[in-house]
Amino acid sequence: MERHEYDVVVIGAGGAGLRAAIEARQQGKRTAIVCKSLFGKAHTVMAEGGAAAAMGNVNSSDNWMVHFRDTMRGGKFLNNWRMAELHAKEAPDRVWELEAWGALFDRTKDGKISQRNFGGHEYPRLAHVGDRTGLELIRTLQQRVVALQQEDEKLHGDPEAYIKVFAECTITRLLKDGDAISGAFGYWRETGDFILFDAPAVVLATGGIGKSYVVTSNSWEYTGDGHALALLAGAKLINMEFIQFHPTGMVWPPSVRGILVTESVRGDGGVLRNSEGRRFMFDYIPDVFKDKYATTEEEADRWYDDQANNRRPPELLPRDEVARAINAEVKAGRGSPQGGVFLDVSTRLPAAEITRRLPSMHHQFKELADVDITKEPMQVGPTCHYIMGGVEVDADTGAASVPGLFAAGEVSGGMHGSNRLGGNSLSDLLVFGRRAGAGAAGYVDGLAKRPSVTGVEEAKAEALAPLERTGGENPYEVHHELQRTMNDLVGIIRKSEEISEALQVVEKLKERAKNAASSGSRIYNPGWHLALDLRNMLLVSECVAKAALLREESRGGHTRDDFPGMSAGWRRKLLVCSAKPDGTSVTVEERAQPSMRGDLIGLFERSELEKYLTEEELAEYDAAVKES
Amino acid sequence: MGYKAKFRIWRGEGGEGRLEDFTVEVNEGEVVLDVIHRLQATQTPDLAVRWNCKAGKCGSCSMEINGRPRLGCMTRMSTFEESETITVTPLRTFPVIKDLVTDVSFNYQKAREVPSFTPPADVKPGEYRMQQVDVERSQEFRKCIECFMCQNVCHVIRDHEENKPNFSGPRYFIRIAELDMHPYDVAERKEPAQEEHGLGYCNITKCCTEVCPEHIKITDNAIIPMKERVVDRKYDPLVWLGSKIFKRQR
Amino acid sequence: MTQTTAESAARKQRAQIRVRTLRTDRWWLAPAFTFAGLLLFLIYGFWAIFDKSYFVDPYIAPFSSPCLATSCPEGARLFGLAPFGDWYTLPPGILILGLPGGFRLTCYYYRKAYYRSFWLSPPACAVAEPHGKYTGETRLPLILQNIHRYFFYLAIVIGLILTYDAVLALVHKPAGLGSWILLVNAALILCYTFGCHSCRHITAGRLTHFSRHPLRYKAWTLVSKLNARHQKFAWASLFSVMIADLYVRLVAMGVINFPFA
Ligand SMILES: Cc1cc2nc3c(=O)[nH]c(=O)nc-3n(C[C@H](O)[C@H](O)[C@H](O)COP(=O)(O)OP(=O)(O)OC[C@H]3O[C@@H](n4cnc5c(N)ncnc54)[C@H](O)[C@@H]3O)c2cc1C
Ligand code: SF4
Ligand code: SF4
Ligand code: FES
Ligand code: FES
């Protein structure tokens, strides 16, 4: 079996993975990047709107404190405040750094990086390139990796001496030596051959879990591998009940259902209407946001030109609010013919402006749905988009509870609380990717000796099992049933009975998955790959459902029909999932959320905090304010 | 709405293989990739195909459909007659791994041969000031999703394997053009474009432009302007003389 | 980067598909039309050079303008000049034909057109070319294509002369159909000429900072607009010049003789 020794192995080549690998390599560590698809194709390419960073280029009132406040508000104060703080402070540097590596963002008149409006952000804050920001981000990082390789080639004669990409290679197990990480085991998708990494530090950057749902904006890669790998290695997952349903996914044709319609459509003037032609979002402004959003169409329309003196249109409320509103409109029978609502820019902007500002949306609708968005409205509906939950990490270093394990990006949890603001993910990838890379490098420096790998034979047997069975379950069918179940029973709106039912189905599917069989050889065999992914999807789905059942309130990406209100008591609690190494007995425990540091909580008005905090916490707040 | 479509798909490992016939259900609004997925789920679970975003953004699902390079996820079934037999083959210019999946490492090799963005040493991150008009040309080239269909269709290497070592291909010509037109790039790229990357092999027959799913005007906006810049540097005696007299480098 | 260990030779191979193309559309149509169009032009041009009826006051046939030999009729001479004396006995068209000919021959669009339709390199996209070896424009003679910009400089002169001819004709015979035909032809030729890629490069394409040269940038945007239609203007002017030329000759021969001719 192929075997490689590295200092740091980064699993995932999206924004977080690449940024982590670049950092580890810059700190002199021999680094491997492993990813399931080709280099440069990770899910990050799909991000459209932009990367949030309080550079203040468009509105100079913006700064990290405003960004911090917006992030906490968006996450309904469940965020890990230290992460939100680091994120708001460091995002501008990370974006500027990309520019020095060759990224070409859209510009302001005075030549700086232009920034656009997005839901939940008080000021125009998203650095962007048209509507293909993710592509720019990943390409820049990819080219930065290549630049480092060119440097290494000059110095050592081998471009891959210090940083190497293992593309189309899937990791199925993390290996340990006692308590600590000692490597990773996987297979080449192309050949089916196994590969072993011997490394004291592993950074997980595997993205999300959307493929457990039918209607999703996520690709096949999002089978929750990193979440599951961490769980199996003994790490903890937090906030798994919070899943972001993006309000605007395509609803037609069926084969593209779920594909994302970027939020910039609304940021640039698009409005939501129901079948009666009403801009229904005005009816759905929740109390906590009443003073920040326009109450009349006139005021909302004025806002696009004069943001200082008007409140923003309610179409730009945080995603969870908009998704629920659309859901409610459709349920009330005011939906569009294909079961969504109308999103219209055609009557709001001139055609040329639409094709300039939203080129890929124009292209996407033209090619896939035969709809010209400069002439007619789009039909959109909620789609499973992002998981706020993930591996519990230390904010400063990205370290998980297992020594040697680090996580960054969508696979890590805490930063976004119960709901992520648009644009906060791309900046999250950069900020915490870098921190995790540095954290891993620091950890390796502090080790007395390299750990040794164990458990290879078990990993091998587990991976080969589906090929050795004959006449077992068809993995495609098991997958499909899981997707339906999660979509219908643990979707946007949840109920206790439905979640319990989902858990029973998952339990049965787990049995069936154990019996999944794949025909064909080991060479590029998608049936086999799916059979192996099932373990991860089922494990993650179980965490989501179990946590969702426990949390008896509605907050952000978790809405309980039977507990519609937000509860200050629940805000203090995190739900933490763990499992046994064989993937059985997933348990969820409550853990207290640490209180916010005095100087940070002091950034908020008391009147705002009253909506979220318990009396006890408010007393702490008063004390903190008095002190300063 | 559904109907049964006839497909012929190239199947095999390495170079060896054959076209196999399938009959498969097609529903309204579907694209070729959907049909291939249905084949995977119902008839041939080990049929290999690369894909990722299913929205034309990642450039993974490049294949040849009825002989033309296309993205499987952006080729709607409604563009074909119901009675037509649709032939799907892997990209021809690269070695086959299995079925529709090819080994595109040639492109990553070439990517590494283009020197990276080289800003002046004294500009710090955050100090970059660029006008929109000055970055627009390069931005067009950065739309590239690396589907490698231009590389695949270019006859210089499609029909002449022996040219591969000397020719970087249209994808990397736009990369060179992007950097040469970047307001802050200071590296010399014209001479190498001709000498090392084989710009001269291109006979501007525009197939790369024809297949590009991002509608990048590869030939008109990158290759020909680069050829003209090369002429400045290498072939035009007047410009050469002028630069000697006025000591103008750029 | 998608390397694997121990590859067998077979895995290094392209798909063995033994047909030239699997395209099912009529891919041969475009090169066939191009071939026919260019051939027609060559045949016509060859005939026109040797045809002597190129002048009828106030029209001069574009293929023979400027007329620079003493054999040219008085009125046909450019500014009355005849730098080529009596010793020159060949048709005067030959003197200048190389300029527009060379311009079009080295034009980036026409290169595409004839490489595809005459040389079949390639005949159409994803259709294999019949040649065993290919070196493109890297060596003689094709490396000479790089002098295109010099032909462009000269083509501006030719374009202006044709415009001058047309304006002169219009002044002398405002109601003549021929004057208008010449004018349209001159306009199309100018559109073709100023849409040239070399022109685009010279106006501002070679600059890195458009924003520092607003006037040149403006010119570049205009040239770019023409350039985007370069293929269309290449064909339109190719036919217009043939039509204009033939028209003048037919008038000169007396074949066309209605009052407004
Ligand atoms: C359509 C869409 C639009 C979006 N728009 C925005 C936006 O405008 N702004 C914003 O901030 N966010 C946006 N997001 C969210 C954001 O793009 C993602 O959250 C982010 O890209 C995740 O990045 P990542 O680095 O964590 O992982 P990814 O980029 O998803 O990368 C995951 C990597 O892990 C690899 N991997 C996974 N499992 C394994 C395994 N078992 N073995 C080896 N490798 C593995 C994959 O191959 C891949 O390389 C959008 C998301 C979507 C889907
Ligand atoms: S224009 Fe040049 S690079 Fe593009 S396909 Fe043709 S020969 Fe290849
Ligand atoms: S330039 Fe166009 S065709 Fe070529 S790789 Fe990029 S997107 Fe694909
Ligand atoms: S799957 Fe991403 S481009 Fe087709
Ligand atoms: S005339 Fe066609 S490119 Fe110059």
From TrEMBL, chain A:
UniProt KW keywords:
Coiled coil, FAD, Flavoprotein, Oxidoreductase
Top-level lineage group: Bacteria
Ranges for the FAD-dependent oxidoreductase 2 FAD-binding domain? Answer: 7-426
Q: Name one Pfam family in it.
A: FAD_binding_2
Tell whether Disulfide bond is among the UniProt keywords: no
Q: Which cofactor does it need?
A: FAD
Tell me where in this chain the Fumarate reductase/succinate dehydrogenase flavoprotein-like C-terminal domain is found: 479-577
Which residues does the entry assign to the active site, renumbered to this chain? 319
By what name is this protein known?
Answer: Succinate dehydrogenase flavoprotein subunit
Q: Which organism is it from?
A: Microbispora bryophytorum
Q: Which gene encodes it?
A: sdhA
TrEMBL record, chain B:
Q: Which cofactor does it need?
A: [3Fe-4S] cluster; [4Fe-4S] cluster; [2Fe-2S] cluster
The UniProt entry, under SUPFAM superfamilies, shows: 2Fe-2S ferredoxin-like, alpha-helical ferredoxin
One GO cellular component term noted in the UniProt record for this chain:
plasma membrane
List the pathway annotation: Carbohydrate metabolism; tricarboxylic acid cycle
Domain of life from the UniProt record: Bacteria
* Keyword entries, A-Z: 2Fe-2S, 4Fe-4S, Iron, Iron-sulfur, Metal-binding, Oxidoreductase
Tell me which residues make up the 2Fe-2S ferredoxin-type domain.
Answer: 5-92
Please name the PANTHER family in this protein's record. SUCCINATE DEHYDROGENASE [UBIQUINONE] IRON-SULFUR SUBUNIT, MITOCHONDRIAL (PTHR11921:SF29), SUCCINATE DEHYDROGENASE IRON-SULFUR PROTEIN (PTHR11921)
Q: Which protein family is it in?
A: Belongs to the succinate dehydrogenase/fumarate reductase iron-sulfur protein family.
Q: What is this protein called?
A: Succinate dehydrogenase/fumarate reductase iron-sulfur subunit
Record the organism. Answer: Microbispora bryophytorum
Taxonomically, what lineage is the organism? Bacteria, Bacillati, Actinomycetota, Actinomycetes, Streptosporangiales
UniProtKB/TrEMBL annotation, chain C:
Q: Which domain of life is it from?
A: Bacteria
Q: Which UniProt keywords apply?
A: Membrane, Transmembrane, Transmembrane helix
Is Membrane one of the keywords UniProt gives this record?
A: yes
- TM annotation in the entry: 27-50, 87-110, 150-171, 177-196, 233-256
Keyword Transmembrane in the entry? The reply is: yes
Name of the featured protein = Succinate dehydrogenase
